[in-house]
Amino acid sequence: MTGGERQGPAEGSTRSEHFGEEFLGVLLDQGHELPPHQLGPLVARQIGRLDGRETSIFLQDYGQVWLVPLPGDGLAAGEPQPIDGSDAGRAFREARPIEVSQADGVRVYLPLLDGGDQVGVMAVTLDHLQDDERRLLRRLASLVADMLVTKHGYTDLFFRLRRREPMSVAAEIQWSLLPPLAMSTPRVELAGMLEPAYDVAGDSFDYALDGDVLHVAMVDAMGHGLDAATMATVVIGAYRHARRISVGLSEIYTFMDRAVADQFGPDHFVTAQMMRLNTATGRLQWVNAGHPAPLLIRGHRVVRRLQGPTTLPVGFGGHEPRISEVALIPGDRILCFTDGLIEERDVGGEEFSEEQLIGWVNRLEPSAQQIRTVARSLSHTLQRARGGITTDDATLLLIEWRGSATDDLALPE
């Protein structure tokens, strides 16, 4: 080899990369203005170019119990798959590809992830599977997840598909208000669950990652039905407004309090918890307005309640709350929850106490690594422990600080 020559990649590898670029480029070029109902058929046609067949796209239902197949030309619809007890569900729970050998080839299940949020699962059967196909399918699944999320914003197709039960108007409002249920970055992860998924009213949460700072709020509006949903909408709107104009953490309470008092009068209130986590240092600050104290989970066990000074619930005109603070270590998790999670009765008729909640957290935490899996398992386990009865909204939110040693992805030079 002369000094001016460079050894390039093998011919097959070069051809594979060129094919992959064109393969994914078709979806980018054609999918940009494609109507939502035609996205699935386009994906199925592209997978056919890999000699793939029986392509399915599953979306998770609102209760995170089922994976529901997307209909469309070229897609193998089939039956909904349970998240617990199916190969598709395993890919969803573990957030990784699952390969299942079959008599006619290999069935591959790929999680559809968008920024850590679990959209669903894509499945395809191939005669054989090599590393080139694995790489291409992973990239395809990422692109399909992004496109589903984008198109979800202007169609009812996916909303209807994800409903396994009738949904109340109050729940409709709350689901339209929520950010993604999960978010993942190298420094911080977050996952939430709402119950009852199809009839939730007054519970809600919100978050935003701005630079190094994660902003989080959890609220619980009094009452049920549309009144509670309307209050939650107003207080989340006030929270977002205050956060976006860079109001201090304590002062955010005043914005929210004034909005509820002005709109609903003196007999209405919302309990609330607002937090700020510096993802570079692990410094967590919070204020509490009549809300249950969060739990600090360290080493997969609850080590303390994050108690501190509180003020009156939002709407009651309490004093400006004092800021509490704790230094997290990498791997620490914070569990925020509403009182509906602990004030329900269990199957024996006893009130489901905070001690029982802590006991279940300590049992479930060591068995699952993914924070999304822990949140889902905890929510469903607590619902079973309460005999499947939820007379009040029951919401939880898990936050994990992963530390700053694993920093953001380096940009290529």
From TrEMBL:
Keyword Hydrolase appears in the UniProt entry: yes
Recorded superkingdom: Bacteria
GO function terms (MF aspect): phosphatase activity
Pfam families with a match to the protein in the record: SpoIIE
Residue ranges of every copy of the PPM-type phosphatase domain listed in the record: 185-401
InterPro entries given in the database record: Bact_Sigma-Reg, GAF-like_dom_sf, PPM-type-like_dom_sf, PPM-type_phosphatase-like_dom
Stretches of the chain forming a coiled coil according to its record: none
Keywords annotated in UniProt: Hydrolase
Protein biosynthesis among keywords: no
PANTHER family reported for this sequence: STAGE II SPORULATION PROTEIN E (PTHR43156:SF2), STAGE II SPORULATION PROTEIN E-RELATED (PTHR43156)
This protein's name: PPM-type phosphatase domain-containing protein
Organism per entry: Streptomyces naganishii JCM 4654
